[in-house]
């Protein structure tokens, strides 16, 4: 509930220029997987002096986080991919993280693309009204649309990173997806599905 109130208060206080700045903060991370494009599009939250462990303590009981900030984080695959042991058809999916206790992170893909900003904020600028935003009620409202959940492995961090980063790097016939924030990183190999 606190998250819903904070989101609504933040939206009321925002000017159209501030909303445009939010949209422009997104990063697209492309890769090639067996000749097909694969990309993650996400916003980049910053720690700003906070500890990652403290932020993770604020997660809801299901410990699901939307892997970014502002608009919905998405993974788009031109061809079918293997995520852990699950075959995921070509398409666009919202990206979440299950941040388990300790250092256990799972990558979670969901068919639900979020809710249009104009449906939750009547002052949304025309060019942002149809942009996908996370559901204010949390992940439980879209859990039935989940298509894959795969355990990520803790990985060496390149050093403390104030800004959350997702990268896709070619690895063999696949691509290694890495999420890094603070002094921690997690990785998962994605493969083209047959």
> Could you give the distance between the termini?
43 Å
Number of domains: 1
Principal-axes geometry comes out as: globular
Let me know the largest β-sheet.
12 strands, antiparallel
The rounded Rg comes to 16 Å
List the helices and strands in order.
Answer: HHEEHEEEEEEEHEEEEE
Instruction: Report mean pLDDT, rounded to a whole number.
Output: 87
Q: What this model shows, in words?
A:
- The protein contains 4 helices and 14 strands.
- The chain is α+β, with helices and mostly antiparallel strands and 194 residues long.
- The protein has one domain.
- Strands 1, 2, 3, 4, 5, 6, 7, 8, 11, 12, 13 and 14 form a 12-stranded antiparallel sheet that branches.
- Strand 5 and strand 6 form a beta hairpin.
- The radius of gyration is 16 Å and the shape is globular.
- It starts with a helix and ends with a strand.
């Amino acid at each position: 509930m606190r998250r819903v109130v904070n989101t609504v208060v933040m939206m009321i206080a925002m000017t159209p220029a501030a909303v445009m700045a939010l949209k422009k903060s997104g990063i697209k991370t492309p890769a090639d997987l067996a000749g097909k494009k694969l990309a993650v599009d996400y916003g980049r939250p910053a720690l700003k002096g906070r500890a990652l462990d403290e932020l993770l303590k604020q997660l809801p009981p299901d410990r699901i986080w939307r892997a970014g900030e502002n608009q919905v984080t998405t993974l788009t695959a031109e061809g079918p991919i293997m995520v852990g042991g699950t075959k995921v058809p070509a398409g666009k999916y919202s990206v979440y993280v299950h941040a388990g206790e300790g250092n256990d992170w799972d990558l979670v893909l969901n068919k639900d693309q979020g809710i249009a900003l104009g449906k939750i904020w009547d002052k949304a600028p025309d060019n942002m009204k149809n942009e996908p935003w996370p559901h204010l009620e949390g992940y439980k409202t879209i859990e039935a649309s989940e298509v894959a959940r795969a355990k990520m492995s803790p990985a060496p961090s390149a050093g403390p990173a104030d800004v959350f980063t997702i990268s896709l790097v070619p690895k063999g016939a696949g691509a290694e997806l890495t999420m890094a924030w603070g002094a921690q990183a997690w990785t998962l190999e994605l493969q083209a599905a047959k």
